[in-house]
Amino acid sequence: MVRQPSEGTAENPAADGGFRWPVRQFSLDNGLRVVVCEDRTSPIAGVNLWYNVGSRHEPAGKHGFAHLFEHLMFQGSAQVGKTEHFSVLQEVGGSAINATTSADRTNYYQTVPSAALPTALWLEADRMGSLALTQENLDNQREVVKNERRQRYDNVPYGRWAEILLALAYPEGHPYHHSTIGSMAELDSAEQSDFTAFYESYYSPDNAVLTVVGDADEAQVRGLAEEYFGALPARPRPAAPSVAALPAGIEGPVHEVVVEPVPLPRFFFGFRATRFGRPGAAADEVLAAVLGRGRGARLFSELVTKRELAQAEGSYLASWQLAWHESMLSGMVTPRPGVDPAELLAAYFEVCEQAASLAPTEAELDRARSMLEADWARELSSVGSRADQLSRHAVLFGDADRVRDRLPELLSVTAEDVRAAAERIFTPNNRVTLEYRVSTASEGN
Q1: How far apart are CA 319 and CA 276, in angstroms?
Q2: What is the pTM of this model?
Q3: How far apart (Å, rounded) are the C-alpha atoms in residues 409 and 373?
Q4: CATH of domain 19-229
Q5: 221-260 pLDDT, tens per residue?
Q6: CATH top-level class of 254-444
Q7: Tens-place pLDDT, residues 50-100
Q8: Contacts of 376 (CB under 8 A, 6+ apart)
Q9: Considering Cα of 170, then 175, then 179, then 182, what sign does the dihedral take?
């Protein structure tokens, strides 16, 4: 399946969605979906493998499994020794070798000289079909994840803000109530058989998308995919977890106070927004840029420059594409010394809520569009990040070519769309506020 890009013009440079490369897609008999985007400008190839499994697929009592597997997949397989995935790729000139986990997917990626493309695909196929799930590897990587939690969540100021915000915004039992880092107690209590069952349920070709971008064509990738992945069997897995329909708002306002030895008081915010790819989602992103992105944004101008209530380095509002089924706008603001936090909090909400009656000017829209268009250009500037976007659209929409719709959707947002998004989002019943207060010496004892 291929859709050739249309030609842009001087008047409409985004006629092809800013994505000027042809995209070809096919599936193997075992269900593996393959996306190929040929680009001969450099002798490199980005390889990206997305598995349709994330923290929302974890059963009760098994939180943290998806993220742990991000680590386990580098611990060896039938023909590859422990951590050799890195060394083999580095020896042939590979770079950007890593993996990430979200609520909905886990992806593994690398960029290699195009001559080493067979090596990269062979490595991915070997760990898809024969991961070394030994007790030693499990015990070792559980400790690595615990260390990661300490370094990124527990032992840094404000480290748990996103985790707490999720728990406040989504009810107990909802698949987005818990973060991807998971529960250390649940990881410790799990048996080796639990991990084997999780791997066999989700790490199979019929639950994955393989994307190759760069110096390779469809025939070459098809041949390599058949050679290395073709014999791997599809496997049954649990029914996809249902995502319960939630009320339009968070049923707030919710305000949680955390007292910790942080350097400064700080507020974090969450507002439920439109799911990525749905009508209205692009307007939400433009709204976030108009209000909260950079020194020209309304929040910075009003709270930092004019009223001198907030510190420059602690004031923003961003579109948080939390997951396929949910999105949030998230915000943060830090009061200046001597400012009453309650005054700043009221001012923050005032600026946000005023957007429901005060639509953005054409200058504000142009600024937001320029920033978002630049973001998209950066996303497409390397074979690795381009492969990531193609995998994302293939998993989310079932069609990688939907990547061409991304920029036009953002650029077509009108001032009225932004105003309507603000009216929908910034209501008291749709907000979660997490307030960090500085603990005193007596509170710390």
Answers
A1: 10
A2: 0.91
A3: 11
A4: 3.30.830.10
A5: 999 999 999 999 999 988 877 777 777 778 889 999 999 9
A6: alpha beta
A7: 999 999 899 888 999 999 999 999 999 999 999 999 999 999 999 999 999
A8: 18, 406, 407, 410
A9: positive
